[in-house]
Specification:
The chain has about 450 residues and is of the alpha/beta class. The chain has 15 helices and 17 strands. The strands form four sheets. A six-stranded mixed sheet has the order 2-1-3-8-7-6, with helices on both faces.
């Protein structure tokens, strides 16, 4: 073993093994590859592995990316051995000199590499089929640390390795996602499930995401501060998104029913605090929620968009069967279109400008009248980066809504790039529609 390898490798033999009754198994994922560090490819493997492990109740506590360097990989691997019971490495199992994962892992664990005759025969067969010579370099892929079990690779030449050593489970997987993920799902997950079941650590890790609109991340966190400060199982994690906030609730349990019940109890606590700021859960986006409300309440909608350029119409018509409630979306971008199509009073535009409360109201009223819709909605604003005038900055937007005996308009100042402003305008308009359909929007 090289002299620069850490001298205190036996530190990882401390007593934090996979004992029955532990809250959950700690997992660490190490992605090996200089191309990952350079940003040439994305590290999707860590994401996909973490998702699969959640079904087993295994928590991923650390993720590391390290280049194709033996010393640095050894240091990272030793660190993982000190703090995690399950270590999964991806990448560095190929035939070339910079593929160093299996050799480095074997050196750190002080295990000799042994040839697997069955895989050597498969490499030979692959060579004959592809009519490529089998060189000595390729045979490295038939080597594994003593005691390691090779995982069959039907999509490439590098097998995976499953190894139990020093009270740890160590799994080596190929780097290409098309090889790694099927191997992990089809071979590794069953092996882990069997091992965890035997050790009494098999559980379920589940999450629910509450989607929140109308609050920033800090304002939302302040409202639920007592819940954030007294976390256990489940845990709460705020996630800022464009024009909305997500709150992820994650629970660990011995069964889907147990973890699901824990999540629902915590979600109910959050709902009592945040109320109508919560518009949906998990994959329910805002246009889906609004579409369902329009359908449930048998209301039709027509849109007149200017600065949003048809984005709101696009989002609503992405929902299947949108023709049942969506009558028309008019992009009346120019002043002439607002006047000639929607019937906006030209004197209003001349005196107040197209970006004004009065013009937005006439846009909503005009498109509702033109399309015989239950609800008309108008958006006018300055998406930028140019176009601002004194008193009318980039991002200034008016959104108006008209229904039976109901009129509403409000001024907003959005920020960000042109696309950000269009996105925030469409998101705000959707939320106004949601609140109106719930009877929570006050006329203005």
């Amino acid at each position: 073993m090289h002299g620069w390898f850490p001298n205190m490798i036996l530190l990882y033999m401390k007593e934090n093994t996979m004992k029955a009754g532990r809250d959950k198994v700690h997992c660490e994922i190490i992605a090996v590859g200089t191309e990952l560090l350079m940003g040439q490819i994305a590290n999707t493997n860590a994401r996909d592995i973490a998702r699969e492990l959640s079904s087993l109740g295994v928590g991923v506590y650390y993720q590391t990316v390290v280049g194709d360097n033996e010393k640095r990989l050894a240091e990272v691997f030793c660190q993982a051995l000190n703090r995690s019971e399950l270590i999964i490495l991806t990448g560095g199992l190929g035939p070339t000199e910079d593929d160093i994962t299996r050799e480095t892992v074997a050196k750190v664990l002080e295990l000799p590499l042994e040839k697997n005759k069955a895989w050597e025969e498969k490499l030979d067969e692959f060579s004959r089929r592809s009519k490529r010579p089998l060189v000595a370099m390729n045979l490295r892929q038939a080597m594994a640390p003593r005691g390691g079990r090779l995982l069959f690779n039907s999509r490439g030449t590098a097998p995976g390795i499953y190894l139990e050593a020093k009270n740890r489970i160590i799994i080596l997987l190929p780097g290409p996602p098309r090889e790694m993920l099927p191997m992990f799902k089809e071979q590794v997950v069953p092996l882990l499930r069997k091992k965890l079941q035997k050790e009494g650590n098999l559980g379920i890790l589940q999450s629910k995401v509450l989607r929140i609109i109308g609050l920033g991340e800090s304002a939302m966190a302040e409202m639920i501060r007592p819940l954030l400060e007294n976390q256990g199982n489940p845990t709460l994690a705020p996630l800022a998104k464009r024009a909305e906030v997500h709150l992820r609730i994650t629970a660990h349990g011995s069964s889907p029913e147990e973890s699901g019940a824990l999540i629902e109890a915590k979600a109910e606590e959050v709902r009592r605090i945040l109320g109508d700021y919560i518009y949906g859960e998990d994959e329910e986006n805002l246009e889906f929620v609004v579409a369902n409300l329009l359908w449930e309440k048998a209301k039709t909608l027509a849109l007149a968009e200017s600065c949003s350029g048809g984005l709101l119409s696009h989002r609503l018509t992405n929902i299947p069967d949108s023709s049942k409630y969506f009558l028309a979306g008019l992009v009346t971008y120019s002043n002439e279109a607002k006047i000639n199509i929607l019937g906006v009073d030209p004197e209003l535009i001349a005196s107040l400008g197209a970006v004004s409360d009065e013009v937005a109201r006439e846009m909503a009223s005009g498109v509702r009248r033109l399309c015989h819709a239950d609800i008309g909605l108008g958006i006018t604003g300055i998406a930028g980066p140019g176009g601002e005038t004194p008193g009318k900055p980039v991002g200034l937007t008016y959104i108006a809504l008209e229904g039976d005996g109901f009129k509403f308009c409000n001024r907003y100042e959005f920020w960000g790039s042109r696309l950000d402003i269009k996105e925030r305008a469409s998101q705000t308009a959707l939320n106004l529609l949601r609140l109106y359909l719930l009877g929570k929007l006050k006329a203005k």
